[in-house]
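Record type: monomer structure entry
Structure origin: computed from sequence
Chain ID: A
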Amino acid sequence: MKKMFITMLAAVVATASFAQNPKYDKEITATKSYAAGLEIYNNAKESMDPEMKQKAALALNKLAAAEGQKSIESISAGNAATSEDNKLVANMINAAFRCKKVGAKGGEDLFKGVQNYRPLMINAANSTNDNDEKLMYALTYIKSAEPGDQFAPLASFFAAYANYNKGDYAGAAKYAKEAFGDDRVKDQAEQIYRMSLERNLNTREDSLKYIEALKEMDIDKYFIQISNLYIDMGMQDKVQSLVDAALANNPENKMALFTQGTLKSDKKEYKSALEDYLKVVKIDPDFVYGWFNLAACYGNIADDIQLNKADKSGRLFGDDLKACSEAYEGAADALEHVRTLDPNHETIRNWPMLLRMYYNRMGKTDKAKEISKIIGDE
């Protein structure tokens, strides 16, 4: 009886073992469809032992190769790849790479056999407007790339672009950062990276991490954005430290001088701010915001004189009148530079109203009427 029990127990264990290790490769082959076979593989891969995973991967590869053969022949003959062609080629690449990844017999050679098809994924990602397809092609290239692959950053850009449009901002930021290595798309990648991070600025910690990301990219290029973020968080001391460090490194750092002028203006230190803005427009005469802030600073000086020096009737005399008039002249002159740089007031929308106001205060009504025509009031 004891021997019979042991024999029965062994049979049960063998049956249980068989049930836990089905032949997934056979099941995948029986589907005769890569998509159906892939579903079986993905649902069972966590439970597969290494040997079965290798066999299943090889079965998937056979299906993908069979389905994609006509597409490869068509593309090789010079025909334009259709969306279906691109998807089938992507399946072939993914299937062969999976064989290599799981260590299937001959997997290395299978993957080498599809290497020449991988650049098709870059073209496919670039040509489609479907974000799901764009992401699939890009990831097909990225996941099968070796370290140092020259086109991987470009593929990452397409992945970032697709993820952003799909609302996956974390994914967009991840791939956008990886795209910085391709000069052809670096500026666009930086823009996606910044916009993706901005979408997730929910806490103070998020903002501080964003600031560090901007610093890492290019502290000079994003000097104003960094400064404004610090100011929004009430961290003016950080802005001043940023300015001091930048000017110590380069006394003619345009954005640092511009920011320093803004900090001084906020504290109503207009004459000192004026010196900074004058330096800014000397360094870069085409910097429209420099001229606009210079104009505003001159205007503040004039307004300050009017407020503190005028008599009860609002009149100024002597040196005070002269200083006020010179300040308004300076403001109008700076805004005329803005007018030259931004004639259609697309960059700074309100410069015409401000210039008209200064001309009216100076008694130059003809000039003010000219500006009214620009605004559309006459």
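Annotation 1: The longest helix spans residues 50-76.
Annotation 2: The two ends are 113 Å apart (CA to CA).
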